[in-house]
């Protein structure tokens, strides 16, 4: 405040109060300009404007959610478990589905192999029958 500034420079204020006020106004003006420049420089260096826009987007998306956001409990093992269990259950479900698909594919391939063996046996019998007929 101007009162603090004047009390710091009391001797100068007593001699020329108008000049003290002018110096104070210039000091405040330059300080504000300097602060604004520093803030702009920090924003530019850290790409803060894009990050703030992204944060605003996240906040807007979160308004539509009905369930509360996840918060850590403070117990790392429980936090990890609460985060990992749903993922692992989903992955296990996926692996079961893949296993069923592969077992079905193997069953079909086994039937094809058996059908091929039956066809080979039939052809061998046909070959033997023709061989016997030829002899």
TrEMBL record:
Example GO biological process: cell division
Record's subcellular location: Chromosome, Centromere, Kinetochore; Nucleus
GO-annotated cellular components: MIS12/MIND type complex; nucleus
Entry annotated with the keyword Cell division: yes
Keywords, alphabetical: Cell cycle, Cell division, Centromere, Chromosome, Kinetochore, Mitosis, Nucleus
Statement: the UniProt record of this protein carries the keyword Phosphoprotein: no
One Pfam family it belongs to: Nnf1
Superkingdom as given in the UniProt entry: Eukaryota
Family matches, as InterPro entries: PMF1/Nnf1
Annotated protein name in UniProt: Polyamine-modulated factor 1
Species annotation: Acanthisitta chloris (rifleman)
